[in-house]
Amino acid sequence: MIKYTYLFILLLSYIIGKCYSYVLVDQTPPFTNHKYSETIQGCEFTYLFTISSLASDPDLTNCNAISSPIPFVSKELSVSARSCFFNIIASVPRGTGVVTINLQDIGDFNQTLSYICEDPPHPIINSNPDNVLKPYGDFFVVNMNLNLLKRLPLESNDIVIGSEAPFVCNLIPITYSLYQLNCTVDPSKIGSGTTFLFSIRDSTMNLSIFEINGGFLLDSRSINITTSWNKFDPPDVKLAGKQNYVIVDINNCTVNGVLMKSSETTQILLPKIIYGNPNEYILLYNRLYRTIILETLTLVYYTENNGTIAPVDKIPNTYTTSLDSISYIINATALSEGGNALNLKILFDGYFPSFIYRQYGGNSKDFLYQYPYGIVKREGRVVNLSIQAIIPYYQNTLQYSYIPDTDKYFWYNDVPSPGYPLDMILTNIQDLKLIKLSSTSFIISATIYDADSGFYRFSLRGAELLVKDRINGTYNNGVFQKYIDTRDPVYSTLATSQPGNFLSSISGGFSRSISSYGSLYPSIPIFYNIDPIAVRNQTIKISYFGFAINDVDLSENPCDNTLLVNFTNVDKKQTVNVLIDIPNYSDRYRSAKWDSNIEMFRFDFTLVPRLFTNNRVNISIYYADIYFSTSSLNDNQQLRVHSSFADQIGPLISNITRSPAVSLPSGGVIGWKFKIEDTYNGFKNGTIKIVSTIEPFSPIVFEIKPNSTQDIYQDEYQIEVYISPNCLTQFYYIYSIELVDNSYHTTFYSYQNIETTVSRLNPRPPITPLLDYINDENQSIIAPINVDCGFTRTDFEPPYVNYIAVSPETQPFDTFSNLRTVQVIFTVIDDANNILTSSFYSPYCYLEGLLFENVTTKATFVSNNGGPNSVDFLCRFNVPYGFGYPGPVIMLSIHGYYDTQMNIGGMAANDLQDAGMNPNIPMNYDSSDSFPVVEKIVPSEFTKRDTSITIVGHKFMGSTSIKVNIETIDGLEKYNYSVVPKYPIVIIVNNIKPMVKPFYLKVFNGGIDSNVLTITPTGEPFPPIPPCPGTPQCGGSSNGQCIEGVCQCIKPWSGVDCLSQNIFTPSPTINTTNPDIDNNFNTTLPDGESITLKSLISTVSLIELKPDGTIVIEHPFTQWVYTNTTSLQSNSNIQEFTYKTNITNNNLITPISVTLQYFKQPETIIFANEKLEMLASTIKYRIDISKYNFSSVLNTLQLVMSFALESQNSETMSCSVQESGDIGNTNSEYVKLQIDTHSLYGRFIKRGIIDNRIQQISNTIQNNNSSTSKSSQIFVGINIPNFRSFVVIDPDFSVLIDSTPASLKSNSICSLTEDTNESGLSKPQLAGIIIGCVGFGLVAIITISYILFKRRQYRKFQSNIQKKLDKHQNEHN
Q1: DSSP string, 1252-1280
Q2: CA 439/CA 1195 separation, integer angstroms
Q3: pTM over 0.90
Q4: What CA–CA distance (Å, rounded) separates 451 from 455?
Q5: Is the dihedral of CA 1188, 1190, 1195, 1201 positive or negative?
Q6: Which of 186, 222, 554, 1235 is deepest in the core (most CB within 10 A)?
Q7: d(Cα 986, Cα 974) in Å, to the nearest integer?
């Protein structure tokens, strides 16, 4: 028995030992496998998961040995003793099942991952009837609504375009069901008709065929290319790049069907429209060549020939460049080393400041190389450079390359220190967290280990964590943190791109792209870590997208427009970036702001005049990391622009005259006179730079713009250069010209096309303002002016520095402290000439840190007490936090000082050291760990309404409480806020007092002060909040809430005081003669009594007024043309009716249109960027007034509307009252007519659309109003300022029930007996009351009121009236 007991215990021990608790955690992002089959065999699903050991489990020893009955490709991403992270692709059959995961040596580990694999439907059907390709930017698109419920896996060869199609197309998924066919034209194809077929081939090899209409390429008009001309740089003139312009006049040809093709590329070249309209326009295509090329450019358009569509070649143009373009001669063989410092000596013929690409191993940094950095000597365009660098004490390849264009010219590409040790240890991330702070911000926190050279850089989707972001430990083994806020433009690419993750060490060795650090990378917490197609389909959809003005006429005026956008499941604090595809729009990419008044994201932008007509301006929206485009939206959501004649080219120079040369010792003045033309937009401003042959890199800059007496369309502008006596012999010439017109179109010229070639790369090089002179082989129009005072240069040696005193704020210097200023005093001397001391010729100081870090400051003159050839200068640096870390020193270089012979000099750190001076600043990075450092606040634009502030900096831990001190600059307000620190780099302070005045901010940590930030709040402060109307306010808590002085009513209550209710009324009686609303409203009160009201709303006349209010002329509206336009409405909730008429003033006919819309159901609309609730049965007016010929530019217009109400009830007791006023802190006013328990309530917006701008307007209640006890009428004038092109207004009204009788109002008019003279207003007498608002919206709401339990209150009502009559009688006795 004992024996068997012993064996049982052994068996039980074995079983227990094998029952481990290893756990599988599925980390696959949601919707990753929500897709149809992609192969004949079935689906390929991706799973990401971790197998981890629990505390009682032994280590995992063989993670590679995972298996499954389902075949899969396993990609083990990382392994540790306690966990294994896997990425597998499983090939699963059709149907429903599981993927079982087995792990060797763990017999009972067989956890599962489920799947559903199904084929797409066949055939795939497009339910969108619109199959016409439409132009969007450089592409042509058509949207397709497909019968799909999952993502459809597609390869490029699964989209089959018919051979007859002159297109190359891609099918792009927007959601699971919405796809977009995106095409470009292929002019090499000849089609067989205006339509073509394309097919989708699914995983079962079934084809679904669709027909697409590409007929936009054809035009039924007779195409006429009237003229063509060619401008080009002479092939044998020495230039950095050669320009070639082809310009064509075209009549009667579809704009998007005209293309340019090149003999040198298969790509389509899209010409630029510079003038015209869709009927007649001028195209320009400009090319910029940097190499020898023989190219033929051919214009292509399409025509129909015997039923086929075919491309037609026109005006082939051939251009050949020559061999004599400017070359770059670089000699960089001289290299000196000293410890970690390297010095590169370069002789550069053909020098021009541009980008320098610097790299040591895998660590690189671009640098915009600006004159005079590195200059030690210069003769014309031949320069000597001395470049300083500090590299790690590890062996690797150093590269310095000059990138003036698409080519790269190496200054140095070698291993500078072959004796340095090699870095042999891989950098590893041991822990990575992304700590969410808000919906727009998070902290990257990483523990990183590198026992050799140390950690240098980690990139995560474009956000960089650097070695200087250390919060504790060392660069070999430390914790690094960075604060990221996507509202900061620096991080805007986080939401628009997916750059790879990159990790590198200080040595530059083992730099690599990595996909894991020990487990799956955590997703950025403020973004959606799932398939964007699934997000748009399942989670985030556009719930509203609209413009203040959808159809914009830019023929004369600019347009200040607004885009409003909102999303389902919206996060108000998220970042919404907007990209508008508009030529020369300076703010084409920036962020929309949340507008709390309309509860949407708001993007204000300006459209410049005379843009070319475009029915679909392409706009892209980025919300978090989800992309939307207007190309996938409906036609009524598009932005459409129109110009009767477009101007999309900048100003041109029609003539340049030069002054005579200066040839006297006394000097003189030289200058140029430019005749500038811009026929349509007009010249706005320009910049002209003049240089000389002795100093070709420090230009004299002239800013020019028209004065009040000049003609912006054509005039002359003169610039002059003063030549001092005893001047040096040299030539002055035009270095560059940049001209801008009033629509911000720019033309640009640079000497020898150098800057054009270097800085402004293809495919859209700038247009030169010297277009008329580009063929001039002698270049006489830009010939230089000679200056010769009889003195020639006799000294060609530059000055030099013979003394420096470097004084860091602390010694040794610590850039991790808040004391980071460096002051440098230095002396420049010249053995033969005086030193120039004007600020124009001031030298620059440069500090160099490890791995190409640098900071620059301009010197200031101190004294020349040592004589005019010995001058002292001062440089003061504010060194960035962590600069140079972990290098042992930072080094000083000085460049850009001049003598009077215009010799320029400079000395790099090695040069200063060789001359016996000490340019080095020793570093100690841990001398002041307790000093808090404030770098910035978030948001950067702190407003006068902000009640919280985020402070970003360093060293905010170490004590239990941090104090934040805020003090206004005038010292009158002081506030201290205590915060419990949570993070070393961020402090969030909530519930602060809104600050209106500029203030200082600093942080106290353990009694130690930080540096001080000065903050100037922006925007407007909170306005005073008035009380809401009513007692109690807003009818009490059951009726509404008072929010910022405005009643927010709870349905069914409405009105300014939430004491009214909406009554549904049938569609109004539509008058086919004029746009008057003449209705009888019948309703039954709770006591069974029938009530009848008669109302009339009329558009009466348009009056021109002098500034003093005197009437110039009144235009009554007498005859209208009626059209039922309901069928044109895409919104089935709206019935629409349009009336048109004309008036004539000063021989100009002004069309006027009135559109009535009846809303069947409640709806929210936006007028003039104001959010308005339209009740059921609302009738809304839209009134358009076209160009009006004012008798004076000081005069204004007044649109008169009428608004009247009459009770036809047989009740003998009656009262009426009129009320008006503002509606809280809104842009609305109200007018209320009340008769007994019935009211007509009008609400109108004090804003209007005038000449493409939303403007403030006013409304005037006129004096010819009348009221009796049974009727009330008001005239309202809508005051329209003087305008140039058009005005739009939008009034509306609806029927309500009111709960406050007129008899209770102190200013009511009452009677006890029926007065037959007061009743029965005729229609002409009901000339009415205006519910009108110019611009976007007057809202008028008719209210029928009644008293609940009226019979019970009858006696009180009679008593109130009797008291009023008694009081009236006593006053007149």
Answers
A1: TEEEE-EEEE-S--EE-SSEEEEEEEEEE
A2: 51
A3: no
A4: 9
A5: negative
A6: 1235
A7: 22
